[in-house]
UniProtKB/TrEMBL annotation:
Belongs to the UPF0382 family. InterPro entries: DUF423 (IPR006696). It comes from the Bacteria. Coiled coil: none annotated. It is a multi-pass membrane protein. This is DUF423 domain-containing protein. The chain crosses the membrane at residues 44-61, 68-88, 100-120. It holds the Pfam family DUF423. PANTHER family: TRANSMEMBRANE PROTEIN 256.
Length: 123
């Protein structure tokens, strides 16, 4: 579990920085200010939750448990659904993709809830 969550954290961090730079330099002239802000929101949440995945990986090394595994899995799912849907929405212009975004937000909330429960129970 430690290795998987560290790899996911590294991948999410790397791609988050790359996508942020891509938006700032490559998409600035192609997207409206509103869509650029939506894209940057996806980047922001991806980077925050890359750090959350890193924290879960470190905690899992010392306090393994199902709640920590669930937290890491939900953070990764949240990145995919929340940030991924925002990227797809802004790049494709298909507004219906925005219906996926709240599912990613729920995954993030579930991940934080699992992390809090793991802390409460001592993992």
């Amino acid at each position: 579990m430690l290795r998987i969550f560290l790899l996911l954290a590294a991948f999410a961090g790397f791609t988050g920085v790359a996508l942020g730079a891509f938006a700032a330099h490559g998409l600035k002239a192609r997207l409206s200010a509103e869509y650029l802000a939506v894209f940057q929101t996806g980047v922001h949440y991806q980077l925050v939750h890359a750090l959350a995945l890193f924290g879960v990986a470190l905690l899992a090394a010392h306090l393994p448990g199902r709640l920590l595994a669930a937290a890491g899995s939900l953070f990764a799912l949240g990145i995919l659904l929340f940030s991924g849907s925002l990227y797809a929405l802004t790049l494709s212009g298909i507004g219906k993709l925005g219906m996926i975004t709240p599912l990613g937000g729920l995954a993030f909330l579930g991940g934080w809830l699992c992390l809090g429960l793991a802390a409460w129970r001592g993992a």
